[in-house]
Design brief:
Layout lengths: L2 E11 L3 H13 L6 E5 L6 H7 L12 E2 L33 H5 L9 H15 L25 H9 L4 E3 L32 H4 L1 H4 L4 E5 L1 E9 L2 E9 L2 E12 L5 H8 L15 E9 L11 E5 L14 E6 L14 E8 L8 E3 L8 E3 L5 H17 L5 E6 L37 E3 L14 H13 L2
Helix pairs in contact: 1-10, 4-10
Length: 474
Amino acid sequence: MPEGTDGYDVVAIGSGFANSFFLKSFLARRPGKLRVLVLERGPMVPHDWQTQHRQNSPIDEETTFRNRTPGKEWRFNIGFGGGSNCWTGHVPRMLPNDFRMASVYGVGRDWPVGYDDLEPFYEEAEAIMAVSGPDSHHPYPKRGPYPQPPHRLSLPDQILQRAQPDRIFALPTVRARVATATRAACCANGVCSICPVDAKFTILNGMADLYADERISLMCEAEAIGIEMSAGRASAVLYRHEKREHRAKADLVLLGANGIFNPALMLRSGLSHPMLGRCLHEQGGFRARVYLDGIDNFQGSSYRSAVNYALYDGPHRRAQAACIIEHSNVARLRPEFGRWRQVMELSATVEDLPDTRSYVAQGANDDKPIVVFQGFSDYHHRGMRAAKAALQRLLAPLAVERIEINAESVPTKAHVQGTTVMGDSPQDSVIDRTLRHHQVRNLFVLGSGCFPTGAPANPTLTICALSLWAAAHA
């Protein structure tokens, strides 16, 4: 039986982007006395430990769930700050049409929120993370400048941008262009998953003020194991800490684990819905190595400093997936004398449409979630083929000797999406447009599990904006 019963205004499960950004806004809007408990399954892992051990957490994420499709990897981080520890730090916004795929292109489904709804929250999230981005020209509507100036582009990027100014942009990133009070300037060494100089934004280095708030009690190595329901509301969270089970009563519950553990915990707690756990998806992609003829690379001030939107939005999305391409400022050198730097690497991200046959299910016995992935859609594969075929054309402004495209797709983009889909109708969605559960109105389900579709853009900025949006409606 659970020990003790402490009462809280808010119990938050997870300490990553989703819950941290929600709490930052929520507490600012509620200046009075509140009791907030944050349960983090993983340990507190200082940056020094991560760099010394060359890993983000002592917990291997692959041991926390059962992958029934082992050929497909799912990558995330268990520990305080969640994925902010291991992410690369790219934060482009989604485009307006990403929110209305069904209306504009006749594929997928529309989101219950639009770009205009989220734009002020994009701005707020970018300010919190001190994003470095293009100083004037953007591929999406934007009201104000980025908090930090853009990273310096490499020479190949500059050549491409002059030839294609509406396609090539400085990549928005949380790798600091200018040092802040808690982050060094990016050193452009390309090992961003464990940044050696602590230049990228993390919950550890960027939200210490939030977790220093006396209203928050943070408990690490505390695994949520169930949500108790009473009269149609979430009344308490059950969790395991130091080998004992505990109960925390709650007026408001925030689920901010990830797209695997959020649905698994809901299923384990007796919540059911035809879409709960369904439509597990993420983007796919490929890498290419471009051998340049007489043009040196690596002049940029960050690992990846430019992004190409030529294959992103447009009528082609009716038949094939959109693609976004990042240019690497750091790559393996060429082994030819005098031509060491005449090379650049590309990373392509290609969207996919969710499939209900890919899912997360409740685990038995040891309660580990079961994950099944049906595979990428034909829509995705057509986009992959089109993107590979277009590279020579996209790079025409450069003197290119040859392009080598990796035959294997990337094993994961580390973006778990779609398992707690948001929508206006309780019939075909788990949560509403404010990320509240349709039936359990004091339960917010945060994170990219709410995504109805998976655009090519990295999802983290949209996760943060959605959390700020949800907090404004709490």
